[in-house]
Design brief:
Elements: H1 6-23, H2 29-46, H3 50-62, H4 64-81, H5 87-102, H6 113-127, H7 134-152, H8 159-181, H9 188-224, H10 227-254, H11 262-266, H12 276-279
Length: 280
Amino acid sequence: MAAKNVLWKKKASLLDKANRALQESSPEGIHDLRVALRRVSATASALGERSLAKKSKKIVRSLSAARQIEVDRKLLSRVRELGWLPDEVAFGVDARWSARLREGEKDVSRVPEAELQSLRRKLARFAKKSPSDLLPRLEKARTRAEENLSKELSDPASDRSLHRYRLAVKKARYLAEDLALMGSPGLETEIEGKKALQDAFGRWNDLRLFRRDLEKARSEAERRGTVTFVSELDRLISALEPAVESARAQALRSAGAGGATAKVRRRTRRSSDSPGSRAS
């Protein structure tokens, strides 16, 4: 196997494995497929393969709603275990999310198989090539990705800024892993650091989107006139606020934002037993 072929063959292998897991209804099937596709997109973007990057991102977006409901349901189970929400209310919320999964545009069975097949064929073609400039192009792209990290975290008070930073960390990590796969030495510590940073921002993101989706369920319940249901969700949404802010502050500390997080810390009430502590 030519050294330059390793990169695309690895992408194709991860994609095939994740797709099989999804078809076999693995609990992490959607997550694994989205990660495999994001890795393809990061590498393709770095190497100027715009069509491949665009196709990968499109499939990732098509799976976003289903994946978020999976995360929401895990966190819902956690808050129920903590006693933050009565069982009957938790079951009612879960039923609403189950109904959303059954909707046509959010049905997991509608993963665009034809597009996945097309993407796999492209990866197979790329795996047969051995461009001499692959390594320096990846190194250049990784340098740009690292430079972009500080720019993306320009406003620590903005959810949008933190979300962009989270995605930028993922891209920088994936490119570092590409280089390590191709033999570049000394990247292990950096990769582990990026993974820890990604995990910290992921916990914050999961909790804030969970709260957002609970607010949607609460609005729907209010329209239906279910007073008790609304009251219990109000209580849970309020209880989640310190956990979300604590996760935000922890993520910012992990990013080394330092003094920029002081205002966030002051309004944060730390919770050692939050729903995100083991469910994320």
